[in-house]
Every structure is written in structure tokens, then in C-alpha cells.
Amino acid sequence: MTPTLVASPNMSNSNSSTNSFSSSESPIIDASIPVQEIPVQEILVQEIPVLIVGAGPVGLFEAVLLTKMGIRVRVIERENQISPMSRALGTQARSLEILSMVEEGFVDKFVSQGRAMNSAHMFYGSKLMCHLPFSQDKDENSRFYLPLFMEQERLSKVLEKDLGEMGVQVEYGWELADTEVVGEGSEETYVKTVIRQTAAPNDGQERELRVVRSEYLIAADGGRSTVRHKANIKFPGRTLLYKTIMFDGTIDTDLDLGDATAITGMNRKSLLIFRIRDNHYRIVVEDGSYDPDADLDQINRDLTVEEFEGLAHASLHPGTKFKVVKNLWLSCYRINERRAESYIHKGRIFLAGDAAHVHSPAGGQGMNTGLQDAHNLAWKLGLVMNKIAPARLLLSYEEERVPMADRAIALSSSLILRARDQGVIRHYIKRLFLIVSPLLVYFRSTVFPRSANMLDIRYPTNYINVPHKVQEQPMEEAHQVGARAPDGPLHSPVGNNKVHVHQLTVGVGRFHILVFAGNSFADPSCQEREKELAKHLEEHLSQWRTRWHFTTLEGGRTDNQLFKGHIIAAGTPGESRGNGLLDQRAQGDGRLFWDTSALVHASYGVSVHVKDGAIVVIRPDSHIGYRVQGLDKSAWEDVTEYFQTVLA
């Protein structure tokens, strides 16, 4: 019997984390035949709710998040393994925050594999001028104020292991050959994708072809994205007309190298050295202008270790020891600054990571922007596929993430422009900077601008970032809807422990309601207020959870509560005149936490002296979605109205 395309309108979104297809075997088809000429009926069709193309950090993170939300995924990767060659080396503070919110202890898997970037050694030629910190922002606004030095390869392996423990294996050696969205308008729509083996399994055999039918396809297949090409999405931007040499390996040198070393060269060019581990270094050096008509592949074939050593020596004082001991990777590349014209194709195909935006690695923005793309898309797609939210929620993915790509491109471009050779005058300005650099620490100067940690990101007012219909938004943008929800220290009366806000707001695809009570619990009448607050919270959590719920996987356990509530009061337990009713509640069901320094109230723009308090709704990606002043019945009804607007 000839297999045909399965006509079922719905694909299973069960909470099973293992992949299952409508057919487990597929005939071998001659892969040399053009895809468009192969009759679909001659290939067994396999079904999966979400097909992810690309198993780099972005694709793997997307797969982990969706699987934890009960969505079955299939991940294909054209290479045969995770690449040991990693251009990305650093994970910024904001990315560490979103990793920490997946589930309790999740971020520890990554922190244990890397090390914090504290400072960089700044050189002029071979002379050490100073140490500059990566950040001066050691405060309570985030637990992760320093970037984490960890290669992309290690990050990917942690994600792959976590995905494998949930029963999903990456299918290496498979590439996308063609894809299209089938059906439009009132017709059922889905994505039909042809995938093929990148190499024949044995001599004399043909590469196998398969057809995959999915509800959605996520393209995480890099800067040369096949998906983007097949969807005919334009990728405008520019190619910078100069070359960069990248080396990975071991060296013998008498330079005093730190975890990161930035050298302003004697030849006016920059030399950057990063210690990956032990005596294993990543070295990046300028190599002059780039002829746009040149063959980059031929340049790489002709590139030698001796040529690289010569470029490095030209930046250093004569007589400096610098010798390659072992070459693991040597490559010449050109920098592209491009962003996809659209992130969404016909409502079914989504671009993420390098498939959507590429730029210089300066500032460590690329992989981090991609991880945040994955996080933003996953919770929205998960809620839509679990029928918790309408499909229009997905439109906000492009609306929110496109400005973040533009931001990353602008930042990396400014940093690369600052570093490159721009003539004698610019060279002497940089040299003067290094001369006075020992004094810069006192002026809180850092290696990168503060925005590089990505903690100041903010999304615009839109369908899910909703200002109150009557009340004015706070004056400061950091307190308004769309802003990243700040972290901060809290005191838990249960166990007398110190916790942080972001340790409460964990869980994939989950909304958190922060109830700010100010200093009202120090009031003589607070017992009645405590009972009233407990009643409102219990009633509304029950109401919301009854109407909207789905099951997520967290730490090996299931949880079907889409909403978690947390009460934050200013002051200390000793000042409370309450009866401890809120202290006894389970975490997420309205347990009371104390803001002993009032820093958390201030970081959310809530006055401790306003006794009627405030309610702040935190989106699943820890951005402020809604806020209302007051804790009375009408305030709670406003929050209910917000959820009725956003959810299905």
C-alpha cells in the first residue's frame, strides 16, 4: 500500500516527552532527485507538533522549554555532533537569569561548567597597563552581575543532556532540504518539510529522504539558514570590509595573560586573547581590509599558523615570546551585520538566533540574544499549542525580539568600530586611554558598556504589556509594563532564609503575581487586612487556575498551576502585628516574604507608605505584563480582566 499524507487536522500535544511519529520507517529515495520532483505519496510522512532545525544552543534551549511544557518536538542537525569549535564564549547576566527561571537549580548546571569573568588585562603592545572589570554593578538587582565564561560547546552539551533525560534525542546527520506552509485562509494549515541525510549510511547506499508534517517549524539553523532561504525571507544588512583571524589552541608566551586580555597593538591593530581553560586560548586578531570579490574559502585554505603568528607578533613589542604550540582551529572570517526582514512566515515558521540576526561577536551579544529569542518564543508557543492563549500571542514574538536584535547589532558594531585600526590619530587616542586607564576604575569604567549585560532590556506596550486603563504608569521606564522584572533580596519567615525575587518566579510558561503590601502589616488593624488579602488571593488564584491550566515538567515533577502568587511586605517579621496567617501558606499560594530593606518595593516603583499596596503581574519570561495600584476587590478584578484579554 502506498503511504499518503495523513489528513488528521490535529496533532497530539500530549504531555509525553518522547517523540513518536505516524510511521517509524521510510523507504530510501534517491536524494539526487530535486525535492520538488519527488511525489509526496512516495515517502512515508512523519508527524510531530514542532520541528526544530538546528541543534545549537538556541535550538536545544527551545526544545528543552517546549518539552517541559508538554509539547513534543523533533530536533534535526546537519552536523554529526555538537561542534567543538565555539565562536560564542560568554553567557551574559540576563541569559543566566532566564536559565535560572526554568526550574530550581537549572542554572547551576551551567555555572558549574564555567567561571565568572571578573576583569580583563589591558595591554599596549606587550606592556600591561591595567585590569578593568567586566562589571561594576554588584548590587541586588540581579544575582548574576558578571558574565559567565563558558564555551558554546559546553552550554550545548548541558542542554542536550537535559533534553535526553526527558526522552528527546537530537537526530544528527539530517538536514532540511525543503519546507513550505500548506493551506491558507480557512483551510487547515501546517508545515510540510523534506529532510534528508547529510551522508549515505554505507557505501553504495542512497541518502534517505523523509517528509515531516508539523504544526510549527522553528529555524535555529544559523546565519546561512536554509529555512530562511526556502521561506524567501530577506536578510538585509552589510558585510564589513575587513578580515579577522580566529585561533583556538595552546601557545607559549611570556605575556601576563588573564581570563581575558585586550592588546592595543604596536601596528594599530587589536589582539584579543581569551583563556578557555588551562593553556587553551581563543585569540582574535585583525588582518586588514577585505576584498569583497575575494574567495573566503580559498583564503582559509591558504591560511597558515606562521601567518597568524606573524600578525600577533606585529601587535607586540619586539622580542616578546609568542609561539603556537598546538593549533586546534584557525579560520579567517568576515563580519556580517544582518537582520531578517521578518521573524515569522505565514504564522507557522519562526526564525530564532543567528537565523534571524548576525553580527560581530564583540560584546558577547549573539548567542545571548538567541537564547532570549528561544525563551520569548517558547512560552508563547507553548501556551498557544496547549490552547491557553490565542494564536495572536505569537505575533508579539517578532514585535518584541526584532528591536533586541537591532540593539545587539548596534552595540557589537560600536565595539568593533572602537577596536579596529582607524588611523594614527585614533591609535594615539586609544594609547592615551591606556595611559590613564589605572585611574578609570575609580570612575566605574568597565570593559564593556553596562548595557552589554542585557539587564536593561524592555519591550514595548503591546497586547501582553498592558498599561492600566485608568491609572498612570510610573515615571521611570524600569517600573513600567514591558520592563524586565528586577531581582532583589527578600526574607522568608519560614526557615528564616534569604531568597531572591527571581528564585520565586521560576517555572516554564508560568505567570507570577507579586502582591506588594508596603508597610501595612505594621498597622494595628493589619490582622483584618491580612485576612482580607488572603481571601482575595485564594479566591482569584483558584478562579484563574480553574479556567486556565496545563501540565509542565519541573525537576522531574509535574505541575499544572499556571499562576503563582507571592506577597511582599516592607519591614521585618518583628514589626508585624498580624497573626501569621500568610506565613503558613505554601510558596506560590500566597506565602509572605519580607522586603527588609525596602529595595524590592523601590525597584518595582511601589511606595512602602502607600497602605493600599500594588499588584504586579510577571510574564513567564520575567517581564512586567501588568500592574495596578491597590489591593481591594476592584484591583483584583482588574488583574482578572488582564488575563481574560491575554489568554483564551
Automatic annotation (TrEMBL):
Residues 1-23 are annotated as: Disordered. One of its GO terms (molecular function) is FAD binding. It comes from the Eukaryota. The keyword Oxidoreductase applies. The keyword Cell inner membrane does not apply. Pfam families: FAD_binding_3, Phe_hydrox_dim. Residues 8-23 have a biased composition (Low complexity). Keywords: FAD, Flavoprotein, Oxidoreductase. Residues 457-542, 599-647 form the Phenol hydroxylase-like C-terminal dimerisation domain. Belongs to the PheA/TfdB FAD monooxygenase family. This is FAD-binding domain-containing protein. It comes from Podila minutissima.
